[in-house]
Amino acid sequence: MNIMGHLQQLGRSLMLPTIVLPGAAIFLSLSALPWASIGLPDMQTHLQVAGHALFAYLPYLFAFGVAMGMTSNALTAGLAAIAGMFIYTSVINASHYELEPTVLTGVLIGLVTSIFNERFKSIKFPEYIQFFGGPRFIPLAVSVFSTLLAIVMVQIAPYIHNGLMELGEVIESGGGFGVFLFGFVLRILVVFGLHHLVSHVFWFQVGGYTSGDGSVVFGDLPRFFAGDPTAGGYMAGLYPTMMFALPAIAFAIIHEAREDLKPKIKKTFMIAALSSFLTGVTEPIEFAFLFVAPYLFVIHALLSGAMMWFTYELGIRHGFSFSAGAIDFLINEHLATRGWLLIPIGLVFGLLYYVLFRWAIHRFQIPTPGREEGSQLDEWAGDIPYRAPLILQAIGGKENIVQMEACITRLRLKVGSDKLIDINALRHLGAAGVIRLGGGNVQIVFGTYSELIREEMDKAIRRDISRVLFSAPMQGRMMPLSEVPDPIFSGKLVGDGVAFMPDKGELVSPVTGKVIHIYPTKHAIGIRTAEGLEVLLHIGIDSSQLKGQGFEAVVEEGDQVKSGQLLITFDMQKVRKGSKSLATPMVITNSDLVSSWSFAPFKGVKKGQASVMSVVLKERSGGGETA
């Protein structure tokens, strides 16, 4: 794996431990309620202890999360990292220094554990001590490392402690400009999925604060929840961006969409805007314009950084446990300094974004969703089990997947060859963007459905079923059979499948198989797959009346064809003029062999585009006829 691959995996791993922090914020928020007035005076203490406990054990959570994330959820590695943290903490607590493990310590032990796991998980010893070989050697190796690390830290701890405090002071001395740079870089790194690397340095490691009980916490986020009045400068300015600016972009995209597509675009982007406003999940909106107008994304990053600078200079300090959405804003408002100002500032900021983006989309004809062939987003939670096999095919099949993980908004893949990935097909299936990082490392942005997609893809890989996948036989619009203006096809009397309204006069094979029949008039062709499915492709409705004029077959009966191979060319003008419709059905004539069907969205497709239809065959005693 190359450097970018390591970094994207580390970025995902750093997100894993933070999923517990909303619980801490809720406990601390509830502890502020007047429990004594309702006869529960101890409840405040219980809730405060519950909330602070998660922050106290945050280094352990990071050790476990990084070890698991960097090893594809190897439980042995997670256990070894936790054991290493226990050893480390016990050794330093036995010293005469008042030391506390930091998040940086947890990340380091987690990383070392992942390296040991990769290096030693298959290690072999002589038979009489092989008990300690293989995965059982990893906790032993990590224990030794943690002991040595603790001994070294006891010697250099005062210098490290003072260094972190001074680093925080140096960064703070940068004032608003330093906060601006942080905000700008943070948004730019979203493109590569590496924003967690820079955010976690500032949120969990830089700057120290001694709380009332004498314990020292590091990082803007723990300091904020520990009551440090100076903390929150690296978080407060994100609220206007996530709660107001990104939803404003969504509204601009909706209002600039074509009238015929506006209802669908409105539904999709209202959901995306609400997600950004409530939870701070921004990628579905940002990726809607990132690839079609990258210069606009740079402007967005500059404005986001400028907003962080502005709120910092106004003395606004606010924090969050997960992200800068309305839920965190309300839960943590009681800890904020001048936090209420973020609402009017955000409204003005959002209006600026709306005017700027709507003007830019209209002025430069940016193909955002709902206008042309821009990035697509879709609302299809209930359809995930059916689309997962199609997504798997668009990635290049299970044989192309080396490693598959998911974070909050994207699939993170290591593939054998990224050339096998069909980007058009993935966008057709709902991906907002596809990012190639080199070395086979790929990120596919599906929004908050990414983890569900990964689970369904994993099920499809493990499931031992016979599945046949179909590519698009032509460029044009995919449509359900029910829309074909012919009762025989629309009534599925010939067979089940889909249809296409062509944009170009070329028909290619949707599957690999054998040409079993070419009609004399060349307007239709039949293909049998290796599994025994018989596929009929029929160009136009009532097009047989042309008696072959305008059609030319480039294959013959008995030929073996591959998916995407050219079969027939046709003159669209002649076919349109001489037939009832250009609609081209693709049906399986022996659909009694099919157990279940999956269809991609009925949208525009490219010729040969993967993953437009998938069928699962019924179990039967005999195999299909060999093509």
TrEMBL record:
- The answer, when asked if ATP-binding is one of the entry's keywords, is no
Residue spans making up a coiled coil are: none
> Its membrane topology, per UniProt?
Multi-pass membrane protein
Transmembrane segment boundaries: 14-37, 49-67, 74-93, 99-116, 137-157, 177-194, 201-219, 231-253, 265-281, 287-310, 340-361
Q: Which residues form the PTS EIIA type-1 domain?
A: 486-590
Domain PTS EIIC type-1 residue range list: 1-373
Q: What is the protein name given in its UniProt record?
A: PTS glucose transporter subunit IIA
- Which GO molecular function annotation, any one, does this entry have? protein-N(PI)-phosphohistidine-sugar phosphotransferase activity
Where does this protein reside within or beyond the cell?
Answer: Cell membrane
The cellular component terms of Gene Ontology attached to this UniProt record, alphabetical and capped at eight, are: plasma membrane
What UniProt keywords apply to this chain's record, in alphabetical order?
Answer: Cell membrane, Kinase, Membrane, Phosphotransferase system, Sugar transport, Transferase, Transmembrane, Transmembrane helix, Transport
Task: Give the superkingdom in one word.
Answer: Bacteria
Residue span, PTS EIIB type-1 domain: 385-467
Entry-linked InterPro entries: Dup_hybrid_motif, Glu_permease_IIB, PTrfase_EIIB_Cys, PTS_EIIA_1_perm, PTS_EIIC, PTS_EIIC_1, PTS_Glucose_EIICBA, PTS_IIB_1
Which Gene3D superfamilies does the UniProt record give? Glucose Permease (Domain IIA) (2.70.70.10), Glucose permease domain IIB (3.30.1360.60)
What biological-process terms (Gene Ontology) are attached? phosphoenolpyruvate-dependent sugar phosphotransferase system
Primary subcellular site in the record, as a coarse category:
membrane
The record's annotation in PANTHER family points to: CYTOCHROME C-TYPE SYNTHESIS PROTEIN AND PTS TRANSMEMBRANE COMPONENT (PTHR30009)
Indicate the residues that form the catalytic site.
Answer: C407
